[in-house]
Amino acid sequence: MAVTFRIPSYLATFAKGDSSVVLQDVPATVQDALSALWMQCPGLRDRIVDEQGEVRQHINIFVGNECIRFTGGLTTTVPDGSEILIVPAVSGG
User: Fold this and answer.
1) Closest CA relative to residue 77, chosen from 28, 26, 14, 23
2) Which residues form the domain of 83?
3) Is residue 1's pLDDT more than 90?
4) Which of 4, 31, 37, 42 is the one with CA 20 to 30 A from 50?
């Protein structure tokens, strides 16, 4: 199987206009998955992680239904067939 990234529409321009990117090689961790994503769509990197390689504060990443902020961060395992969602944080008042 493969792992699929779901890209929000405002970032799709940095993913060749695609709202999803499929990784054929199954990565072990979210960090590995992001590294593979940068190979296909290098423009996404600076919009998702900061200069230290940490996920930006206004970005949430989910593996399936679980936010990686609560499951091990970038070391979260990625099961075969997973969907990884990149979701901008929403705020309001």
Assistant:
1) 28
2) 3-88
3) no
4) 4
